[in-house]
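CHAIN AND CONFORMATION:

***
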Amino acid sequence: MTSQIIYAESVKDPEKFDQLFLPPVGDSASSTQTPSIASWLETMKRKTGRDMTQSSPNLDPPPRWKLFLGVLRPLIEEYVSFAISRSTIEQLADETYYAAVPEIPGVWADSASPQSAREELAEVIREWLELKIEDEDYDIPSLNGLDLNANLRYLLSAPSQP
């Protein structure tokens, strides 16, 4: 038996949907009848005013910055790598380790060991960068000659493809 994948929105005829996805209903009085998909779709159309067999053209497209994550990811990783190489580690009185990058104020991590503090700091920097990019807040400090602000402005100001 071969299986077939059919997306619900590609089936425009509700009766065809019933034939493809619902088991046949028995004639005996003791069998339970499965509600018709066609009747469910009609009920949803009355309740919501939306034809559930049609794809929704009203979905918002993803933000532009998410479209460029593939291009941005290597730049972000290069930035994080250099930031971690510039990080300072300090043992605190409670014997945990505090990690920070002097050029990036307010971004820090602490953990039980120096290595785990560095790993957490790398993750905090990644998240901080993604928030900066999402908010279009281009005051990211330049590190090792890597100016993410210029790259972001260039990428995100490029005209959209039709």
